[in-house]
Amino acid sequence: MKKSLFIISLVFVSISATAQNFDDFFYNKTMRFDYYHAGDHASEYYYFSKIKEEPFYAGSKVSLIDNNNYGNQMFKIIDIASGKEIYSRSFCTLFNEWQTTEEAMQTSKAFPESVVFPYPKKAAKIELYARNPQMGFDKKFEYTIDPDSYFVEKFIPTYETFEVMYNGNPSRRVDIVLIPEGYSASQRTKFEEACAFFAEEFFKYSPFKENRSRFNIVAVWAPSLDEGVTIPGEHVWKRTATDANFYTFDSERYQTISDFQKLRDIAGHAPYDYIYVLSNTQKYGGGGIYNFYGISAAHNPGLTGKVYVHEFGHLMLGLGDEYVGGVSYNDFYPTHREPWEPNLTTLVDFDKKVWKGMLDSKTPIPTPATKEYEDKLGVFEGGGYVSKGVYRPRQQCLMNQLTRSDTFCPVCQRAMKDMIDFLTK
Description:
The structure is a single chain. The protein is of the alpha+beta class. Helices cover 21% and strands 28% of the residues. It has helices spanning 2-25, 94-98, 102-106, 188-202, 260-267, 304-317, 354-357, 410-423; strands at residues 26-40, 43-54, 73-79, 85-91, 109-120, 124-131, 137-145, 160-165, 174-181, 215-221, 274-279, 286-289, 293-297, 380-383, 386-392. Helix 4 crosses helix 6 (304-317). The protein starts with a helix and ends with a helix. Mean pLDDT is 94; it is low at 1-19.
C-alpha cells in the first residue's frame, strides 16, 4: 500500500511539474512567427517577416517537446534566461516538395510560411532547422523574440466561427479547424453542410472513429468573391479565400495553397492543431502536408470521405503515399537512406522502425505480393511514387489506391493513435 501511494505521489508530482512548466514560460494564447522560405533545388534560406499574436492556444500543455522524429523541418523555442528548450515541433512545407521538381533546377523561389507556438512570457529565441542528407537536423536560422515588443501585431477578428463538433477542453483534444475555399457569400449553408459531412465521413474510419471523443472541430466562415476553384490546366481562375489551385507542380489532381500566411490569418479565428480546407468543387484531388495544412474537394461524388482521411494521414503525421507514379517529383525518397515516414522503408535501417516489431516472425522481408499475404502485414515493394526500392506495410491501404481499400493498415493506424495520444496529454 505504501509503495503504491509513493508511486501515485511521484506521478502526481511529475504531472504537476509538467503542467506548471507551461505556466512558467507561456501565456494561454498563440504567437505566430512569419517568414519566407526560399532557395532552389540545392539550397534553402529563411527570411524574417513578422510576429503576430493570436487569441487561442489549442495545443497540449504537457506535450511541449516534439521527439517524434518526423518531418523535413523543425523549430525550437529557447528560453533565453535559462537556455532551456521550452517548445518544439517538426513539420513539412510545400517549398521542400518544390525543391524536387524540374523548376527548382532552373530558378529560385520564395514561399510565405509560418509556425505557431504558445506565447512566451519572457524573451525567447526561435531556431529553424532543416533535415540533412544524414537524416539529422541542421540549424539554419534563429531570431530573438521580445514578447513585449509593440511590433508584435495584434489579432483583428474578421470572420465568424461556428462549432461543428465539441468534446471538451482544446488542450486535451485534437482540434481541427475547417476553412472554406471557393464558397461565395451566398453559400454559407452549403459550407455548413460540407462541414457536417466532413465530420460524418471522417469518423467512419479507424483509428478516428474509436477516438471521436478526443476531437473538436470548428469552422471559420470566410467567403470568397467567386464561387468555385482555380484550375490552371483548364484556364479557370477564381478569386477565393485561400488562393488554392489545382495542377501544383503540373500534377492535375494536386491542389495546394502557396501563401500559408494568408491561410493562418483565417485559421487564427479559432483554436486549432490542424488546418483542413474544404474546396468547393467536385473535381477529384487535394493535398496534405505534415503539420502544415490539408485540402481536398468537398463535393466529389463517391470518394470524398476517403480523400479526407488520406490527406489527414499526411497532415497529422506525415504518412507517405504508398502508390506508384502520379507526381512530378524527382528522387523524392532516395533509396540510399531510410525515410522518416512511419509507413515507408528503403530497408536501409528498417530495424529502427516500429513497423519491424509488428511483423510475424515468419513473414519474409521483402514480402511477395501474392494472395497468401494479401491481407497480412509485410514489406511490399512499391511505394513513395516508385515501383522499386521503396516498400510499404500492406498490399492495400488508404495511403495507397483509395478505390481498392477501405481501411488504414495496422502500421498507419498505430502511428496515428500514438499521435492522438501525444496531442491529448
